[in-house]
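Hey, I was hoping to borrow your eyes for a little while. I'm sending you its amino acid sequence along with the backbone structure tokens. Take your time with it, there's no hurry, and the full record follows here.
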Amino acid sequence: MAITFNLNYDAIVIGAGHNGLTCACYLAKAGLKVLVLEEYHTIGGMTITEEITLPGFKSDVHAFGYQLANLSPVPKELDLSRYGFELMKPEISYSHIFPNGGYISMYRDIERTIKSIEKYSKRDAHTWNKIFNNYLKNKDAIITSINSPPKLLSLQIKDMEKRDLEDKKVDDDDLNLDTYKFDLQSMRSWVNEWFEAEESKIMFGTFSAFVGLAPDDAGGGSISYLFANIIQDGGNNIVKGGFINLPIALSKYIISHGGEIMTNAAVKNIVVNKGKAIGVRLENGKEIGVKKIIASSTDPYTLVIKHLGEENVEKRILQKIKKIEWGDAIFAMYIALNNPVKFKNDSEILSLSSQIHLSPPEIEYLSKIFYECRNGKLPANPLAIMSNDSLMDASRVPKNKHLLKFLILSVPYDIKEIVSDNNLPNESLTTELAWNQVRDIYGDNIISSINKNYIPNLCSEILKVKSYSPRDFENKPSTSIRGTLSCGAILPYQRGSMRPIPELANYSIPSISNVYLCGSGSHPGPGVSMAPGRNAAMKILADLDLMV
């Protein structure tokens, strides 16, 4: 029997995170009638802002700093400022503070950053200046690589080999096989090659942990290089009023171009007929047809296994999708405060920093965290990344009150053992119940440690704490698969033309002619860049012979 739907839409986009909305914007701009479906009760995905602790205290649940997006053409191309999008640009992008009260700060002004590094090493300060100038030389190429479909690995290596053979004298900054080596270099290897002071090494090296890469994981060096330079160049900016105002601006653009957005609309499956998607079926039973294409910003596993179904996808693709590595999970504490926090050395500079990294100046400290995490152990002394919410943007809190968040990188999704002597249960724990048992106690223990080592008035100023475990993140919204940030671990074999798997790296499904991937499971990956959504839209429009 033939399957028929009412065909009211040219395109359906599954997922109203910033990538799904970005993709929908460009499709609508090209004249397509677009519908965006979101299972959560609000748009935003991993750029949502909610009152987690107390009424009037607006926390960014996932993303806080506007970093990778500094390289995005989307805000200008879509004129998002017209739809209420506005950035705040703190002078101090971030600081890394140490238990002894020392710190290094990165300013928007490179000269001020250099002076901060000089406290620990003049050589490292000079080195950072050299590294940053190298980044500026290659910035245009980096922007192009992020905001374009990934180039095949074989072609990249061929180009590098050609450059090596042609150049009699290869410049250190040229694209050659040294670039390939650098892309695979671990964080520890990279910082040991370039810096001498442990404080400098941890200052720049910590960024690899943001995407779940341990000090000795391949690829961590280039990640640290990229994030540190992007922030030095464009700042660690803040979306005024909360990160939610980015997806709100994108949604306004869609609606102004005739598109529609439906929340509380979980997709059960994509309906496929003769190798082509013809519509979607929602969990509530509603069926919606589509004339041209479906794009999904969900994680690749959900799209392929759950929404398309194993009967519609080639066996080799199914096998590879089922083997995707998701990486380490995250934990967070959202804290409403009566008064601002004061740091151990009472430095006003730290209070003016957009973000603050708190750790000892030891690479081995990070190694221990990853060792514990990957063995199913709850790290006793985890890495904390502090977001200075209210001091950056007073509109997020009631008058004279304050708000911050601590993001804890690299905790196990399934707890097998507790590494702590601080009143946590120590029996074997392997179920979701385990996180329910230890979540709040673990959060309180981390806060006590931060109070002792970095912020002595933290505990006394707390009005309310709300802790989120990996299981909480997985359900808020469900695209945070296994409580991770990356929608697939950022490993060499899951990056670029290997992301999420080689067969799907060009944002399309080989066996189904009109279904596309547009989320962070695709190149260039996680973080707020809007690039996966824009890149996918460019691929879709090219396939449809449409221009923007």
Q: What stands out?
A: The chain has a mean pLDDT of 92. The first strand starts at residue 11 and ends at 14.
